[in-house]
Amino acid sequence: MGRLGQLFQIYTVARPGEVRGARWEQIDLAKRDWNRPKALMKERVAHKVTLNTAAIELLKQVRMETGGEPKPTDLIFPSRRGKMLSDATFNKVLRDAGLAHDTHGFRSSFRDWAAEQVPDIPDPVAEAAMAHAVPDEVVKAYKRTTFVEMRRDLLARWASFLSEGRRDSISR
Questions:
Q1: Mean of all residue pLDDT scores within the chain
Q2: Which residue ranges form the domains of the chain, and what is each CATH number?
């Protein structure tokens, strides 16, 4: 579950704690959304994550591996005891793979990738995808959009970029 949770975190650009606390009732597979409640969020503001195909497929895999139809209140990525994974789990996944990286670095990698590789998507869209708060009160007062469709496009491109990297590493 730790490895699957780590992949979901990467695909969705979420914070590790948001993934560890994710429950099935927050997922709308038909709309391809993950509706995170404010209690799960760093800024205590509810946030919709647009789910790319890689994230959807991973959720389907988790359902199959955990025995089918979960209860809405079940954790998506539970520990072996059915509890929330520890906050060190995702970094352990990386260490066990022989990597000296920190799980939060994937968010940083996404942000750099979006700035360098997807210049047609404005910076505020990438910031919204990461659920970053708008620091400027004037901008926050007037910017009422959440860029849902643009974020959907951005995260689809992110998943495509990640799958290209996986194909490259598999073929070596």
A1: 88
A2: 2-171 (1.10.443)
